[in-house]
Specification:
- The protein is an alpha/beta fold and 490 residues long.
- It has two domains: 2-255 and 474-488, Rossmann fold (3-Layer(aba) Sandwich); 280-468, Glycogen Phosphorylase B (Rossmann fold, 3-Layer(aba) Sandwich), CATH 3.40.50.2000.
- Helix content is 37%, strand content 20%.
- The protein has helices at residues 18-32, 108-125, 142-151, 177-182, 187-190, 207-214, 223-231, 239-244, 280-292, 314-326, 340-352, 367-376, 392-398, 409-414, 438-454, 456-468, 474-488; strands at residues 2-6, 36-42, 52-66, 69-80, 83-90, 132-136, 160-165, 173-174, 205-206, 217-220, 249-251, 301-307, 330-336, 359-363, 379-382, 402-406, 431-433.
- It has a nine-stranded mixed β-sheet, sandwiched between helices. A six-stranded parallel β-sheet has the order 14-13-12-15-16-17, sandwiched between helices.
- Helix 3 packs across helix 6 and helix 15 (438-454) packs across helix 16.
- The longest helix is centred in the first third of the chain and has 18 residues, at 108-125.
- The protein is globular and about 70 Å long.
Length: 490
């Protein structure tokens, strides 16, 4: 099968969050299974060009319609860790993708509407005719709209579209000028509730909604999140649209790339280890303490790794730091925030705890360092308000680090409470709390820390249970192939 992935991110060359890992990991799994996969991305100036092999122009005069004129683009080709990637570079005085950042610009909707049009123009002009176009999140929501309203009439009749929703908090709600920009000029037709008109902002269009309406199948990144966005306010206004299109909607749990995240082969950690050599984990605990000048003591190390924002539960993260310290544990944080206020708050906290020998806050993000933190920690907290899938808990379990998570989204699908889960003991792998408050987090941390101190042999069994879990791309890879086959026959 020939599959084209159209996305705004792909690890490790253009990565902001889990979307990038999904695009890379799924593409790799599909190739392993004998499929031909190509990835189309914007050519950002802030990409990791050192991660691209053989980058060169492959199509130099791609003229893309935009408003009432055409923009010339160059299309580059290169391999990203073996994946075939095309990068679209528009030559425009608007400097669409040379901003030094991936997102966060006032004209993001325009930039990615252009990218959608350019990606399809490239597929059409090069007569690729893939079996499936798989696009991701609001940034590519216009791809199926443009395909079925414009490019199918030009001869691009073969592809079917699978559309994956990674986070419904960001939907690309924007003005009707995007219709004119992308060539969807029948205002009354597209500005309709059955198509692109936003369900609540009556003067706006919703790019993610367009992707849902026009795609042949829609997925999200875990079964629990699929239920939540149809039945709770986590839909952020798209619940009715998802119900209307429920016949073509389902949740597929994200996988984890064990080529990258594997303590048996990880070159970023002090000592490799596995289930049979789990004592090697404690060498990493020593190295982690040494790295951050934390004292060597008989105490558990608890960590947080990830983005610092309201979705991730910043208030609970802060509370978890102090709770760990007053209960005889140590705490290490690695994270950064896109929000100035939150970032300033954690910088002040770092200064406040500067002389604390059992704590270190590393404000910023360094993926190589993250590997050592996963390997050297005993536990990790993930107190998210909502979590579509989450990779943190999957990585932690692979490294024998016991996750302490809130009962939401993909966290619910992957972490099963050591005390209360309705599962056999060998399938229990962490601690789960339900209520998004301090008492909830405290109860789970109390149980985890208590087990570490009182019953170390049982805590080790919990670690090994997590390491045995298979959250590779093997299962979701087959799920997506089943979806592709289903929509090809429609």
């Amino acid at each position: 099968m020939f599959i084209v992935q159209i996305a705004s991110e792909c690890a490790p060359v253009a990565k902001v969050g889990g979307l990038a890992d999904v695009v890379y990991g799924l593409s790799r799994e599909l190739e392993i299974r004998g499929n031909s996969v190509e990835i189309i991305l914007p050519k950002y100036d802030c990409m990791r060009y050192d991660q691209i092999y053989g980058l060169q122009i492959t199509y130099d005069n791609l003229w893309v319609p935009f408003y009432d004129h055409h923009v010339r683009c160059s299309v580059f080709f290169g391999f990203v860790h073996g994946r075939k990637c095309f990068f679209i570079e528009p030559h425009s005085n608007r400097n669409l993708f040379n901003r030094g950042v991936f997102y966060g610009q006032n004209d993001d909707e325009e930039r990615f509407a252009f990218f959608c049009r350019a990606a399809l123009e490239f597929i059409w002009k090069t007569d690729k005719q893939p079996d499936v176009i798989h696009c991701h999140d609001w940034q590519t929501g216009l791809v199926p709209v443009l395909l079925y309203e414009i490019y199918q009439n030009l001869g691009l009749t073969h592809p079917r579209v699978c559309y994956t929703l990674h986070n419904l908090k960001h939907q690309g709600v924007t003005g009707e000028h995007i219709l004119r920009a992308s060539g969807l000029n029948r205002h009354n037709y597209f500005f309709h509730y059955d198509r692109l008109r936003d369900n609540f902002n009556h003067s706006a269009i919703n790019l993610m909604k367009g992707g849902i309406v026009y795609s042949n199948f829609v997925t999200t990144v875990s079964p629990r999140y699929a239920w939540e966005i149809r039945n709770t306010d986590l839909s952020y206004g798209l619940g009715d649209t998802l119900h209307r299109h429920g016949h073509k909607f389902g949740g597929v749990l994200n996988g984890l790339d064990y080529e990258v995240w594997n303590p048996e082969t990880d070159r970023h950690i002090s000592k490799t280890y596995g289930i049979e050599t789990i004592d090697g984990k404690y060498r990493n605990k020593e190295a982690l303490r040494h790295r951050f000048l934390i004292r060597d003591a008989y105490k558990p190390v608890i960590s947080y790794v990830g983005r610092l924002d309201r979705q991730k539960g910043v208030d609970l993260i802060r509370y978890g730091i102090f709770y760990a310290l007053v209960t005889g544990a140590q705490f290490i944080l690695l994270g950064s925030s896109p929000e100035h206020g939150i970032s300033e708050s954690f910088w002040h906290l770092k200064k406040e705890l500067n002389d604390q020998q059992d704590c270190h806050l590393e404000i910023g993000f360094n993926e190589e360092l993250a590997h050592l933190i996963y390997a050297g920690s005993d536990m990790i907290i993930v107190p998210s308000l909502f979590e579509p899938c989450g990779l943190t808990q999957l990585i932690a379990m692979k490294y024998g680090t016991v996750p302490i998570v809130r009962d939401t989204g993909g966290l619910s699908d992957t972490v099963f409470d050591a005390d209360y889960a309705p599962r056999p003991y060998h399938e229990r792998n962490g601690y789960v709390f339900r209520d998004f408050d301090r008492r909830g987090l405290e109860s789970a941390m109390h149980r985890a820390i208590g087990l570490w101190h009182a019953y170390p042999q049982y805590f080790r069994e919990l670690m090994i249970n997590g390491m045995r879990c298979d959250y590779s791309w093997n299962h979701p890879g087959q799920d997506y192939l089943n979806i592709y086959e289903y929509i090809r026959k429609k």
